[in-house]
Amino acid sequence: MSAPAPSLSLRYPFLPYLLLLLPVALHTWVILAYAENIPWYDDVEMFVAFIQEYFKANTLSDKVYWLLKPSNEHRILLAKLVALLTYYVTGHMNFRLMIIIANLFMYGTLVILYRIFRSMQLPVWSFVPVPFFLLQPQFFLTSTWALTGLQHQGGTFLSFLVMYNLAKGGRNRFAGASFLQVLASLSMSNTLFGWLAGAVILWRQGHYRRLAAWAVLCAVAVFIYRYGYTYSQGTTSQKLFLTQPWLVIVSVFSFAGGSFDVLPFAPFLLRGIGPTIAGIILFALIAWFLSQMRWPFQKKILTLVPQLPNAIRDNFFIGIYILLLTNAAVVGMFRIRYGYNVILISNYMLYPALLLCVVYLNGLQTLNIQLRPRWRQIGLTLAVLLWAKSYFWHLPELANRSEFLRAWGYNQQHTGIGLGGERGGNLEAPIHNAMTGAVAGGYYKYPDNPVADYPVVLDTVATRITRNGDTYHLETPGPSGAVRQAFAVLQSDTETYLIPSNTPFYRPAFWLRRPVLGVQADVNNFFLRPGTYRVGWAIAANDKSIHFSRKTVTITAKY
């Protein structure tokens, strides 16, 4: 009888490390390839306008005021500190560097999860699913946007670090966790739930004096957070919960299972099936895991020993569950009024990914030794499938957003409209003033013209223009080679606009790198100055060139 074949771990001991490196390396490449040094929308107020006011302030109290000044429902202290750091390091406020730092925070969260895993003393194979769950582009509007990245990725890192330090115990760790929780509370509103999570951990540990100090710090932090705070929301959401509670409950489940959004462009009834079912399963698993933990109110247990590895991990998992599930409840209640698609919007999808990571690790601890291999197989299979799904659907969107920012950053620089404001809208003047002031003051420098190296060719190109309300649809025949980059060019006597084309990012064209029949672009009347514009195209395929057509569009002042 022949001996059984050795396992993969014995035959290829380096294989799990290579698999761990794959999502890390690919995510790093994506960030370095597509992160742009261009602010977008809220970035302008939160960073560009802030840094000018900060350096105008002559007193320490005024500088602290601008650091803590709230925006909508958030204070963003950590994000503003990082913005200042990029200014001092590079000589300008650098949004690309801010995005990179935000992703370093997420890598820090991954390290914390790895430390929890290593305390289980399991083979490294068992950790392989975690970076696949976490490092993927479903939440690209967090990982490639400076403001949301520093809020969500930075905030979750601080929260995970707080829970880790509290779970480990000790006076020094408690002091560090207290400081970090105050910082987190002033950096992202979601992290306020960390006070509740931390209180539960301290209660489980029996540290009642620390719990009292924690409560005092919580009151101080919440007071600071609410001081001078004028933004409010929730009345409409509360009415919705009272009249349609089932919709809010379904939204909570859908948000928790958001990583299973496998049909992101389907009608919402079809789209929501996977996330909702997955969310229900995750809630059931979490409830069972919690039931397997020891609790102080159980009479048969006279005392808990918080320094034991299992107790440390239990406390960490409980803290993270409170953070993530209360966040799911808040999103379900306060965002469903904007439509179901907002529940699964890219900005928020970091949290379902983190929930999957924690549930998977909790399962490794709770399940018996016979079930762990099957749990690992299920985890690895799901992680790789969800990771591949995410790249297939969302990498083209991420790449498209990079081109979008480059085009509209150029437009903002040269025409005063582009980075979030409409012509004549409430945001046009504030964004224009903030950007021109930042450039004049040396706080920000625009990147290079994205078509600076495109030669202008005299031959005209055929173009078809159709109008639908306030939107012009532009189309030109596709070149013989695969389109790598494309912009419509609208040029008047005084203005030139670049309008990014989605054509290179349609999935067949993007993934197969094959030629397209036509290159298309849509431009809204609201984003152009009045005038008559001749229409051209800047296309990179076999080579780069700018061709103009004989067609024009006329933008009127009234819309």
Automatic annotation (TrEMBL):
Keywords from the UniProt entry: Membrane, Transmembrane, Transmembrane helix
Keyword Transmembrane helix in annotation: yes
Top-rank taxon, per record: Bacteria
Transmembrane segments: 12-35, 97-117, 145-167, 179-205, 211-228, 240-260, 272-290, 316-336, 342-363
Protein name (Swiss-Prot/TrEMBL): Uncharacterized protein
